[in-house]
Amino acid sequence: MSRFFRGGDDSSSESSSDEEELYGSDEEQKVPTKDADSDDSDENDSDEESESESSSDDDDAPKKGLSRFLVDQDTSESEESGDEAGTAKVKSAKDKRHDELDATITGILNGQKINDWVSISNEFDKLNRQVVKLQDAGKAPKSYVKCIAELEDFLNETLAKQKVTPKKMNATNARGLNAVKQRIKKNNKDYQEQIDAYRKDSAGFMESDEEEEVKTAPRSAKIRFDIDQVQDDDEGFATVGKGGRALIFTPESIFKHLRTILESRGKKNTDRGEQIKIMEKLFEVAATPYQKIRVLMTLVSARFDLGSGSAASMPLEHWKAAEKELGILLQILDKERDHIVIEGAEEWDDDEKAPTLEDGQKYIRIPGSIVSFIERLDDELIRSLQSIDPHTSEYIDRLSDEGSLYNVIFQGLLYYEMLREDASLEVPQDSVNRIMQRRLDHVYFKPSQVIKILEENSWKQIPAKRDSKITPRSKSGDAAQLLNTICTYLFDNSEGIIRARAMLCEIYFLALHDEYYKSRDMMLTSHLQETIASFDINTQILFNRTLVQVGLCAFRKGLVYDAQNTLQEICGSGRQKELLAQGVMIQRFHQVTPEQERLEKQRQLPFHMHINLELLECVYLTCSMLLEIPLLAQTGSSPDVKKRVISKTYRRMLEYHERQIFTGPPENTRDHVMQASKALAAGEWKKATHFIHSIKIWDLMPNTDNIKALLAKQIQEEGLRTYLFTYAPFYDTLAVSTLSAMFELDSRKVSAVVSKMISHEELAAALDQVTETVIFRKGVELSRLQSLALTLSDKASALIETNERTLEHRTQGSANAFNRKDRQHGGQRGGGQRGGRGGGRGGGNAQRQAGGAQFTGGALGAAVRG
C-alpha cells in the first residue's frame, strides 16, 4: 500500500502529485477517500479514523498522509506552512538573470567603496556578459545603464585625483584601472542614448514604465529572407546575426562588424569559418583604403586562428588565401603611401567614421605588424611540410608555395625600407632584422642556381623604377654576393641570436659551395663553438648542420683528417638524427613526456632541408678507415706504444665485423667500408678501392668522378703507410721503385710519403736519395713478455706516485721530509733507469717509434742493453 494514498498504485499517486504541482487547481486537489477494493474496506476505515483522531488531537502537528500535499484555503496558513516546511520559490529564467545582474552590480559598488579596481574589472566583464541575455531590441536593463554611467563617472573622478595629487598605486590595482579605462569607453558607446537619458533625469529614468517586451525570434525559428535588403549567398540564404535578424553589409557598418568579430575571438563556440565569410563580404563592400586595410588585417588574423592548435597545421586553402590577402595588403600600402601599418600606433576607437588626415599629419597610422604576419605565414608552411609525407607528390606541390611566400617576404622588406626612408617614423630595427632573417632562412641552404631563380621571380613583381637599398637589384644575379650582403647587414645591425644565425648561414653557404678555407676561418674566428650552448635549441641545430656541412666540404677537397675531425663530434655521438633535427631518436630506458615529444616534432626540419644521413655516415666511416688502419698497423708492430683511438664508433664496428664467423658480400654502406678496411689492412689496396667505389651513395655528391679519384689516391697512400708500418721489422733496405710498382705511385710521391713518415718519427729509417733506397734502422726487438713487464713497471710507478700524493694530502705536510727524501731516491732511480729508454722519449712518456728502432726503458731495458 502506498505511503501517502489509501488506494491506487504508485504510478497513479505520482501522476496525481505531478498534476498538483503543475496546475494547483482546487478540483484536482480533491482526492478520493476510498479507492481500494471492498475486501480492504475495514483497513481503510481504520486508517481514516486514526488519521482523523490524530488531526483533531493536535492541530499544530504536521499533517500526515495525503494532507501533506494539499493547499489550504487560508492563504496566511499556507504561507506559514510554506515557510515552516522550507519550500523554495520557483523563479523564471529571466528573474534569475536579473538577480545575477543585481549581484554583479553590488560587487562593482563594493569595489568602488574600497577602490579595488581588480574586482571592478572582473565584475565589469562579468556584467557585460550577463547583460547580453537581458537586452530587448538593443535596450539594456535600467539597472545596468545606471551602473555603467556611475562607473564611468567614478573612473573619471579617480583619474582626475591622480593628476592633481599623484599617488602610487599597487601594480595589480593599476592594471585593473587601465583595463576598465580601455573597455568602458568602447562599451558605453553602444548605450550612449540610454546613458544620456539617465544623466538628464536619473529619477524619472528609473521610475518610468516598464519597457515593452519585444518578442525575438527563437533559435529554432526559420530564417527570414528579404531579397531587397540583404545580399544573398549563392544558395539563396542570408547571413543571420543574433536575434534572428539578417545582417546587412554596408561601408558604414564595416567597423561595427569588425568590432564584433574582434571581441568574439578566442571565445568558446565561436564559428571561425562564419566570421571569415563575413569578413570576405566586408572586403567586397569596403570603399576606402583604410577600410580595406582594416578588413584585410583582421581577415588574415582570423585565418591564422584556424591553425592555432598544436596538433594540426593551418588548412591549405586558408593558407593560400592568407598569402594572397597579405600580398594585396602590401600592394595597397605601397600604393597608398599616406596609410601605414606600424607597431605601437594608437588604435582608432570610433566605429562610426574612419580617421582622416589633420593639419600637420602625414600618415594615418594603423596598429599592426607586417613582419609578424610574414613570420606566422612562414611558420605555418613549415608545419604543413612537417605533416606531409615527403615521398609523395603532395609534398612537391606544397613546396612550390615557397616561391610565392618568398615574394611576400621580399615585398615586406621593401615596405619596411620605405618606412625607414622617413626619419619621423620610428621603425624598430628589430623588425627589419627579423624579416631579413626570414629571407636568409629560405636561401642559405640552396644552390646558387635556385637562389638566382627565386630572386628573378621576386623582382618581376616589383616595378622597374623601384630598388632596394639593402639588396640592390644589381646584386640579385650573384647568389654569393647576395648572401654576403644580407649576412653583413645582419651582422652589423643586430646582436644575439640573429647575429649568430647570420654568421652560421653564411658559413653553411660557403661550405655548400666548396669554399672550405673561408668557411673554416669564419667558424674559428666567430668562436661560436664556445658560446653555442647558451643559445636556443634552433640555433644549436643550425650550428650542428653548419659543422656537418664544413666537414663534408673538407672531404670533397680531399682533406681526410680535417673532415674526420670536424664530423667526429656529430657522427661519433650516434645521435645524428636528433642533433640535426631530422628525426626523433627512440632511446632505451628513457621516457619522454608528451610535451617534450611535441616540442621535438615541432623542431624537426622539413625534408627538403635534410642532410643525407647515409652519405654523412659513409664519409665519416671512410675518413676513419683511412686514419685508423695505418694507426692500427703502427701500434700492432710496437706493442708498448700507448693505444690511441681516433674514432671509437669505427673501432666498435670493426671489432664487431672481425668477430663474425662468416662474412658475406657487402650489402650496405657500412659493410662496404668494413670490407675495404679489412682489405687495406692486409695490403690489398686495389680490393679496398673496389669496395669503396662500389658504394652507390657517392652518386649523390657533385663531381662524383673527382671524388672517387681522390679516394683512390688516398687509399694508395695509406696502403703504402700501412705496409711500411707492418713490414718494416722484416726489411733492411727497400727500393723506392719496388714500392712504386707495388702501389702504382710515382717514385717522387713514394719518396715524399717516406720522408714525411721519417720526419714525424713514425718510421725508424733513412732515405738514400742516391740509390733511392729506404734503409731501416734495426734495434733489439722485445718479446711479448718483456713488453708486458715494461708496461707493468710503468703502471706500478704511476701507482706509487699516486699513493704518495694521497698520503701527503691526508697527513697535511707532516711527512714532507720523508716524502722529499723518498722522491729524491726514486727520482735518481727512475731517472737513471728511464734515461736509457731511447733518447727521444724524455723519461718514458713519449710513444715508442715503429719498426723496433728504440729501446724501452726500465730495469728490463737496461738488462737487455747490457
UniProtKB/TrEMBL annotation:
GO molecular function, one term: translation initiation factor activity
Compartments, as annotated in UniProt: Cytoplasm
GO cellular component, one term: eukaryotic translation initiation factor 3 complex
Region (Disordered): 1-99, 804-866
Compositional bias per record (Acidic residues), positions renumbered to this chain: 16-26, 37-60, 74-83
Boundaries of every PCI domain copy: 607-781
Keywords for this protein: Coiled coil, Cytoplasm, Initiation factor, Protein biosynthesis
Basic and acidic residues composition bias: residue spans: 27-36
Listed Gly residues bias regions: 827-845
Residue ranges of coiled coil: 174-201
GO biological process, any: formation of cytoplasmic translation initiation complex
SUPFAM superfamilies reported in the protein's UniProt record: Winged helix' DNA-binding domain
InterPro entries: EIF3C (IPR027516), EIF3C_N_dom (IPR008905), EIF3CL_C (IPR058999), PCI_dom (IPR000717), WH-like_DNA-bd_sf (IPR036388), WH_DNA-bd_sf (IPR036390)
A Pfam family this chain is assigned to: eIF-3c_N
Domain of life assignment: Eukaryota
Family under the similarity heading: Belongs to the eIF-3 subunit C family.
Subunit structure of this chain's protein: Component of the eukaryotic translation initiation factor 3 (eIF-3) complex.
Biological function: Component of the eukaryotic translation initiation factor 3 (eIF-3) complex, which is involved in protein synthesis of a specialized repertoire of mRNAs and, together with other initiation factors, stimulates binding of mRNA and methionyl-tRNAi to the 40S ribosome. The eIF-3 complex specifically targets and initiates translation of a subset of mRNAs involved in cell proliferation.
PANTHER family: EUKARYOTIC TRANSLATION INITATION FACTOR 3, SUBUNIT 8 EIF3S8 -RELATED (PTHR13937), EUKARYOTIC TRANSLATION INITIATION FACTOR 3 SUBUNIT C-RELATED (PTHR13937:SF0)
Protein name: Eukaryotic translation initiation factor 3 subunit C
Native source organism of the sequence: Schizothecium vesticola
